[in-house]
């Protein structure tokens, strides 16, 4: 489900813990004594983590980085505290930190997309971001605008747009205050809209 165009200006409701959240927490807890139990977390979340990383760094890097996300999570499972958040944003936070180590590669990728258009391997994910920002199919222009965002703003934009995390879950993933998510998201959206509006003004019409 893609966030609506006004999501940046609205405060999303804080998520209510679900039965799956409780089951996730139990799996992590059990894996502290029975390491094989962590396989359930891997099986449940590897596909979404892989898609998220692929949309930011490309499919080749995603194979290794998604696997590393779960390796880091496994090593840190004793520190997971369900009172501070659920497993899903915890995993996305680890993945985002790993993506940060490839920041230059990500920026180069968006710059390349700006020149050549959407990467066929991840076009659906690029389209999700486009749909979240504007109704127009402007992948190259959006890629250029994403490349120009700061790391903090880009992380929030893509966690919301690609992974459909709530503001509360993004705050958990990035270990930042809840209110900071909304303010950074609003600033990022203004920059993206301004960049796309400028493109619209530069495109010649048939009139």
Gyration radius, in Å: 18 Å
Q: What oligomeric state do these chains adopt? A: single chain
Report the sheet with the most strands, covering strand number, pairing sense and barrel closure: none
Distance between the termini: 37 Å
Mean pLDDT: 78
Residues in β-strands, percent: under 5%
Low-confidence stretches: 1-13, 120-127, 132-138, 203-207
What is the β-strand count? 0
Counting helices, strands and paired strands, the structural category is mainly alpha
Describe the global form.
globular
What series of H and E elements makes up the topology?
HHHHHHHHHH
Percent range of helical residues: 55-70%
What is the count of DSSP helices, taking H or I runs of 4+ residues?
Answer: 10
Describe, in short, the structure shown:
With 207 residues, the chain is an all-alpha fold. The chain is built from ten helices and no strands. Helix 4 packs across helix 9 (167-174), helix 6 packs across helix 8 and helix 7 (139-148) packs across helix 10 (178-202).
Task: Describe the 3D structure.
By secondary structure, the protein is mainly alpha-helical. 70% of the residues lie in helices and 0% in strands. It contains 10 helices and no strands. It is globular. The protein starts with 18 loop residues before the first helix and ends in a 5-residue tail after the last helix.
Note the main attributes of this structure.
single chain; 207 residues; mainly alpha; 10 helices; disordered N terminus
């Amino acid at each position: 489900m893609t966030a609506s165009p006004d999501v940046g200006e609205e405060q999303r409701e804080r998520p209510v813990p679900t039965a799956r959240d409780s089951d996730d927490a139990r799996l992590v807890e059990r894996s502290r004594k029975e390491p094989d139990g962590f396989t359930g977390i891997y099986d449940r979340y590897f596909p979404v983590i892989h898609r998220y990383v692929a949309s930011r760094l490309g499919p080749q890097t995603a194979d290794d980085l998604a696997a590393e996300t779960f390796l880091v999570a496994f090593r840190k499972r004793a520190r997971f505290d369900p009172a501070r958040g659920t497993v899903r944003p915890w995993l996305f936070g680890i993945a985002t930190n790993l993506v940060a180590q490839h920041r230059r590669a990500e920026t180069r990728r968006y710059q390349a997309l700006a020149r050549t258009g959407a990467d066929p391997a991840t076009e659906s994910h690029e389209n999700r971001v486009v749909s979240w920002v504007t109704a127009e199919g402007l992948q190259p222009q959006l890629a250029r605008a994403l490349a120009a965002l700061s790391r903090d703003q880009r992380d929030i934009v893509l966690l919301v747009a690609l992974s459909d995390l709530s503001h509360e879950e993004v705050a958990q993933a990035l270990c930042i205050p809840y209110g900071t998510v909304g303010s950074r998201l609003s600033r990022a959206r203004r920059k993206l809209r301004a960049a796309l509006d400028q493109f619209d003004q530069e495109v010649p019409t048939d009139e």
